Amino acid sequence: MNNQKVIFLLLAFCVAIFNSLKAQHITQEFYANGQLKSEGVQNENGKLGKWSYFYPDGKINVIEKYSNDELSGQRLSYYPNGQLKSNENWELGLLEDSASYYYDSGQLKRKGLYKSGLYLGIWQSYHQNGELKSKGSYRIGLPDGLWEVFSEGGILFQKGSYKEGKEEGYWEFFDRDGKINFSGNYKNGKEIGEWFEYSRKGKKRLYFDYRK
């Protein structure tokens, strides 16, 4: 390849880069008081790369990334006090992979996985004191499998399974001291058969018969 061709290719490459940069521009939006509200890069396809959003006092609100005007990459949001509110991962406009959410104190609120924007696998939520609040599994965005719910003191409140988002099978419900209170079976989200109530001493008696 002679020097003339090399120079021509270099010029063509530089022109392409220049046109690409020229098509991109920084976009800013401001509050009425003049404080910056949002800032990011746009091109002819929409939002591109990192975008930042701010509260009226100038503190960061949200940091997110775009590709062809669709959320793509890590997205972080913050409370007005500066504490992290959420940490998500996006791909082509849909939530993907791990995500975590927090109280404004910084305590973890809930965490789990997404697949194509839907809940997937085990999700756990927590009380503000850090105690486990609930634990259960999802399938295709719906509760599916064993679920447990706990009090702020760590006492089990209820335990049972879901199938395609509806209660299914044997469930137990407990009082504030963790003693069993009610039990019975579900089918497709509805109570079936005999349901039982338990005394404080654990004595079992028929509460309701759904077969009648």
From TrEMBL:
Residues 1-23 form the signal peptide. Gene3D superfamilies: 3.90.930.1, Histone H3 K4-specific methyltransferase SET7/9 N-terminal domain (2.20.110.10). InterPro entries: MORN_2. Keywords: Signal. The keyword Signal applies. PANTHER family: MORN VARIANT REPEAT PROTEIN, TPR REPEAT PROTEIN. This is Antitoxin component YwqK of the YwqJK toxin-antitoxin module.
